[in-house]
Give the backbone structure.
Amino acid sequence: MTDSRARVLARIRAAVDGAPEPPAVARDYLPRHAPDAPGALLDLLHENLADYRAHVHRTTPDGVAGLVARLLAERGAATVAVPPGLPDEWLGATEAVRRLDEPRLTPYELDGTDAVVTGCAVAIAETGTIVLDGGPGQGRRALTLVPDLHLCVVRAPEQVVASVPLALPRLAPGRPLTWISGPSATSDIELDRVEGVHGPRTLEVLLVTGG
Amino acid sequence: MSGTFVGMPAFPKAAHEAVRDERLRANLRHATHTIRDKRARAVAELDDWAALREAGKRIKDDTLRHLDTYLLQLEESVTAAGGTVHWAADAAEANRIVTDLVKATGETEVVKVKSMATQEIGLNEHLEAEGVAAYETDLAELIVQLGEDRPSHILVPAIHRNRGEIRDIFRDRMGSWGRPAPDGLSDTPAELAEAARLHLREKFLRAKVGISGANFMVAETGTLVVVESEGNGRMCLTLPETLISVVGIEKVVPTWRDLEVFLQTLPRSSTAERMNPYTSMWTGTTDGDGPSAFHLVLLDNGRTDALADEVGRQALRCIRCSACLNVCPVYERAGGHAYGSVYPGPIGAILTPQLRGTASEVDASLPYASSLCGACYEVCPVAIDIPEVLVHLRERVAEEGGRGHRLERAAIKASTWVLDHPGALTAGERLASAARKALPKRLPGPGARQWTDHRDLPELPAEPFREWWRKNRT
Amino acid sequence: MRVALFVTCVNDAVFPSTGVATVRLLERLGVTVDFPAAQSCCGQPQFNTGYRAETAPLVRRTVRAFEGYDHVVTPSGSCAAMVRHHYPSFGTDAGALAPRVYELTEFLVDVLGVTDVGAYFPHRVTYHPSCHGLRLLGLGERPRRLLEAVKGLELVELPGAEECCGFGGTFAVKNPDVSAAMGADKITNALSTGAEVLCGADNSCLLHVGGMLRRQEAPLRALHLAEILASTEEEPWA
């Protein structure tokens, strides 16, 4: 192993020996493509999430519990996985059985759970993306992966940014990150996109304003 | 297990069969044309595409120029975050490292995220020989694996299969690998995706070892990035206790910020999406979330040979989006298998001969598998001038003087001499014009026969232009 | 204005009518045309096949032949692209020729500033933009604007216009099956337009596509753009 490390590094050094310094990286691309106004940004996030087949709902902090309860009921979810740190009030109205991920649920237990409710770290309007970083109320990565229904609460405007370049500085690279843009999908059959493979086949996004 | 590319015939010969396969032609035409227009629309949404492309190119050029520094930085970051870094000079070493790691866990099966690097080194075949079953979990890879087939596209390895063929493979083969396909499986993409979901779920849930590649590795943070659609990647990266990632050394990028470029250009170039459904980023190991053991195998396997070539090294900028395949008129007609490598299409035609050398017949034929139309360069999100590298590699092949190239050089030299001696040229042109009535429509001999098999020769003019000029303007 | 005609080896030997048409067109527009007899082949076929050393004498010859001319005009996007993109790698002298070489439609539109060249060509025409003109030179709308201004000409859209015809120099010989398959698709698209003429600005592509059309005895002929632009009511092109 040590030998190969030295060998590969030596090959690299020999290969680029005397090569000119390439031109400096120019970052003259745009920091964002969308306007800065919070209302427009939220509309764009809504539109782009829906474009990739996420179901998008608008509500206020007071309306979250009722909306969560209604969506779980409509999808027939009898059990719901709960990440540590999820605000209690979000599940205040649902009749679904809560399964707190503490201690950690096994993969089989997760597979036997109908839904999961989480918050997020940041949402990106231009791409219709939600990013989870495992913080309070988001849980570990498997939690939002194995159950077939994911309800994700986004607090606007504070969690919404316009673009990928504006999202990255808000994320901590050391944390495990999952970027989600719609339900799972594939383009593997004739290069045409169809939704619903291994990840949650239904993604409900709750955009909460007026907090 | 999937088939291998060993002993492939030269590109023209393989393509000879492919262009006559009506179903293959129809499948490829349908798929590539579908994605082509979508990609153009997804790219057109961004006013600053040219600037993103230039930035991506420069980030990669800087990375390659200082690759040793960035790899050492990466090693330090990954190690600090709880990962273990291994270095593999070639395929054999990488296979050995991975096999030893799997065996140390005591497991006899692994789940795999689609990875070009592990295909390149033939990891599945190696693991199988060592008594470890490797399950491909990407839908297209699953189709290839179940069908004992070879991949023919970077992004969609089963692009040569249409929905009906996929249905047949699932129906006939899933049962011998695990959960059989549901009864009465139809060929609608949604049902086929559902069948894959059911078939693979039991494997994901019991998996103890996952194997992946990575799209990017960030030197400053030690973060690895996997970009995917289906969620199979997340399953393999998250549920097992041990994760082994085999990644080419050129996949490193210097900074966290650099991702802002590639996370914009890669999805739009590959699946024509603003963003792919799932992107996973992890840094070493995290208590209570995901694998407790993480191994990164850094793979050279010919990359440093490519790096040493000042024209050819730009191929190492490639982020494996496959846009060049989707616009390539040659790929569309010859199909991916004709390239005799896991890297087909225009990028394969410049990457494979650099990674493997040009000693074999197929590898020496790859630089010529292009009409140099330039469509690939136009769409490349990291501005790899593929035609430039193709011509450069043709020089190398001609220089090596392999089969046919000594004769070709003699013919080229002769033609140059004639073209450089206008007296001889004029005489030749006059002679050809005088003899034009006697020329048959089909000609024998190398070159001439290939031309006249499909086309008439032009009627040669009564006199060449320079003769007309002499008579009319001097 | 005085310009040098760079007729190209293919046009000289196989398509002299394109050269004659170019001369006639330029003279009609008030340009004095010279034909430096020392010119030969630009070296592109040798270069693109991987024979750089064998290309060098042809580059030197071409550079010498056009010494002293500020405008060198060629009815070939491919040969213009060779000079513009690859000559600089053969040294300073060769590089100095690059900015002085104009593909015909560039010269007409950019230098002379004309799109209506007074042509008359009463036929249904479809246009194939050859790859090197399209992608290496960026000819863009120039050929189309010239064609649209031709009296009597009906221009019809070619489906899949920007796709390569499959010629590709020695590609046509080294990969004959793929080349022919690409050509066949180009022809199918061209025939679907109902055009009488498949027009292009590169005779090497037309040699390939035209040869396939003749083999099939298709009701469509390939013709260089210069020959359409040279045609007038008084002197129609054959």
Remarks:
- Residues 59 and 137 of chain A are 18 Å apart (CA to CA).
- Chains A and C do not touch (no CB pair under 8 Å).
